[in-house]
Amino acid sequence: MATKLNLNDYLGHNMNCTCGEEHKTNLKIVDIDKNAVARLPKHIETLGYKNPFLVADVNTWNAAGTQVTKELETANISYKKYIFKDNELVPDEKTLGSLMMAFPRDCDVIVAIGSGTLNDLCKFSSFQLGLDYMVFATAPSMDGFVSIGAALITDYVKTTYQAHVPLAVIGDTDILAAAPMEMITAGLGDILGKYTCLLDWKMAHIITGEYYCKTIADMVKEAVEIVVEESTRIKDRNPEAIKAVTEALVLSGIAMSFVGNSRPASGSEHHFSHYWEMKFQAEGKKPVLHGIKVGIGMIIVTKMYEMLEQEHFDFTSLKERSFDYAAWEKKVNDCYQDAAPGIIALEEKTQKNNLSERNKRLTILEEKWSEIVQTIRESLPSSAEMESLLSCLGAPTKPAQIGISPQLVEDAILLAKEVRNRFTLLQILWDTGLSESYAKTIANLH
Ligand SMILES: NC(=O)C1=CN([C@@H]2O[C@H](COP(=O)(O)OP(=O)(O)OC[C@H]3O[C@@H](n4cnc5c(N)ncnc54)[C@H](OP(=O)(O)O)[C@@H]3O)[C@@H](O)[C@H]2O)C=CC1
Ligand SMILES: O=C(CO)COP(=O)(O)O
C-alpha cells in the first residue's frame, strides 16, 4: 500500500522554513475523493460565494458539466456558464478575449471545469479581474491546478504569467478515473519530470548560488515516489491510485506557490515541452499533451545527465574558447522565427550567454565537480527504468512516437534554454561546449 500525502498539512498556515523563507498558499480547500461533485455546493457556500461563473469546453463539459450543474441546482445556487466550442483550445490572446466577452459582471467566483488549459485561462482572467476562482478538475493530467503561474501563449511564445492560486481544488475520483488514459499518463509524465527538474534546481544552487529549499524539494520528491509506487494501479484506473496521482499533482502545485514560481516543478524537460509545443502550433500540427512531452523530455534529460557524469573536462581550455555569436544567432533565428519571434534572450550581454559569466560558472563547476557527479548519481533513477515505467502504461517514451523529428530533438537541446531564463542542464552543456555533440548523439538515438 502506497504512502499517503496529507495536503491539509500545507494549508491555512504559514510555514517557517529552515531555508529562511516563510511559505504560504492561499489555497483553502482540497477535496479529491469519491463523490466530491456532491460537495461542490457546500465548498462554494463555505467560501461565501453565491453566483459562480462556470467555464468549460465541450470535452470537459461532457466529462463533468451535467453532474456539476445538477448539484448546484439541487442546492439552489444560481450560476452562469460559458462553454468554449473550440476543438483544440489554445490558451492565447484570442481565447482569453472570448472569455472576457462572455464574462457576466454579476458573478462572484469563476469555476474552471477542466484541466490545464481551462485552469490557466480561468486563473489568469480571474486574477486580472480581481476575482477569486476555484477549479473542478476533470483529468489528472498536469500539476498546474494550484500553482501561482498561468502558462499562456502570447506573440506565439509560451510564457508563464504570475497570477494567483485557486481557493479550492475539487476532484471527483470517479470523474478523474474516467478521463482518457492518455491524460492520466500525461499526469504521470508531468510528475516524473520532477526528477530532472529538481536536479536542475540543485545544480543551479550549486553552480550559480540560486535560492534552493530542501524542504520543498523533498516535498515534491515524496509526491513523485508515491506516484511511482502507484503506477500499476494507475493502469487499472483504480480510484485510490487516481486520487494519489491527483494529490501528487496538487502538491507539486503547492510547491510552486510556496516558491512563488515554477522552479520546483519545471526544468529542462519542461523547456523541451514548451519548445516543441510552440513549433507544433506554428506548423499547425495537432498538439500533444503537456505531460506526455514532459515525460519524453525527462528521459532525454536523464540520458544527458548520465552522459555528463562520465565526462572528464580540461577546464583551462574550456575557458579559453571564444564563441561565434553571429553563427549561433542565425541558427536560433532560423529555428525560432516561425515559432517564437518574441524570443530575444540570445545576446552576448545576457548573463547566461556572456563569456566572463560562463567562465565564472566553469570555475565553480571545476571546484565542485565531484559533488556534482555525486548529486547526479543520487538524484536520478536510470533512463531505462523511466522508459519501462512509462511504456508499461502505454505512454510514448520516444520523440518519434509523438511526431517529433530528430531535427526537433537536436534543436531543442541547443535552443530550448532560450525559452526561459532559468539555469538547467542545457546551460551546463552550453557552458562546457557539449550542446552540439549531445544534440547529435541524442537525436541519432531516436
Ligand atoms: N500553470 C501551470 O503551472 C501549469 C500549466 N500547464 C499548462 O496546461 C496545459 C496542458 O494541460 P492538459 O491538462 O495537459 O491539457 P488540456 O487542458 O489542454 O486538455 C487536453 C485535452 O483533453 C480534453 N479533456 C480534458 N478533460 C477531459 C476529460 N475528463 N475527458 C475527456 N477530455 C478531456 C481537453 O479538451 P479541450 O481542449 O477542449 O479543453 C483537451 O482536448 C498546457 O498549456 C500547459 O502549459 C501545465 C502544467 C503546469
Ligand atoms: O508546466 C509547468 C509545471 O509543470 C510550469 O512550467 P513553466 O513555468 O516552465 O511554464
Description:
This protein has two domains: 7-179, 3-Layer(aba) Sandwich (Rossmann fold), CATH 3.40.50; 186-210 and 263-445, Up-down Bundle (Dehydroquinate synthase-like, alpha domain), CATH 1.20.1090. The protein has helices at 36-46, 58-74, 93-102, 116-129, 173-177, 181-208, 214-229, 231-235, 239-259, 268-282, 290-308, 315-320, 325-336, 355-367, 369-379, 383-392, 406-415, 425-431, 435-445; strands at residues 15-16, 22-23, 29-33, 52-57, 80-84, 109-114, 132-137, 149-154, 157-162, 168-172. Helix content is 54%, strand content 11%. The longest helix is centred in the middle third of the chain and has 28 residues, at 181-208. Helix 6 (181-208) packs parallel to helix 11, helix 6 (181-208) runs antiparallel to helix 15 (369-379) and helix 11 (290-308) packs antiparallel against helix 16. The strands form three sheets. It has a six-stranded parallel β-sheet with strand order 3-10-7-6-4-5, with helices on both faces. It has 446 residues and is of the alpha/beta class. Bound molecules: NADPH dihydro-nicotinamide-adenine-dinucleotide phosphate and 1,3-dihydroxyacetonephosphate (13P). One of its GO terms (molecular function) is glycerol-1-phosphate dehydrogenase [NAD(P)+] activity. Its EC number is 1.1.1.261.
